[in-house]
């Protein structure tokens, strides 16, 4: 596996991002168009409404499943970084750090981490600024 850095740290899952999501929205839009066409022709709306409902449920489920998984991942990362902070400094993370800042800080090696934490709080650094400030990216994080 390539070593991780600012340019390659983003995780994209092609089957999800470029296939499932577009297909879900295309299906929902097609079901709504079908409903409108059937309604104009005066045909029974039952099957079209069912098609719209199922499409809407599928898209909503897809969105919520992704959001819930990301939320759990954020909580795990916060816990890991709190433990890291305690191990390095004897204190928990500064509560002024935002979740997005914490997510960016996890890429920093221990040697840079404490300085970046302080700088992130004092200068309200954006996650992008934090990532760009990292000189030696932490050894590859396990990428699932």
Structure, explained:
This protein has 144 residues and is mostly helical. The chain contains 5 helices and no strands. The protein has helices at 14-41, 46-89, 99-105, 110-123, 127-133. Helix 1 packs antiparallel against helix 2 (46-89). The two termini are 12 Å apart. The mean pLDDT is 92.
Strand content is under 5%
Number of strands: 0
Largest β sheet strand count, sense and barrel closure: none
Shape: elongated
Query: What would you report as the Rg, rounded to the nearest angstrom?
Result: 22 Å
In round numbers, the mean pLDDT is 92
* Termini separation: 12 Å
Number of helices: 5
Give the topology string: H per helix, E per strand. HHHHH
Key structural traits:
mainly alpha, elongated, 144 residues
Could you outline the blueprint of secondary structure elements for this entry?
Blueprint: H1 14-41, H2 46-89, H3 99-105, H4 110-123, H5 127-133
Helix pairs in contact: 1-2, 2-3, 3-5
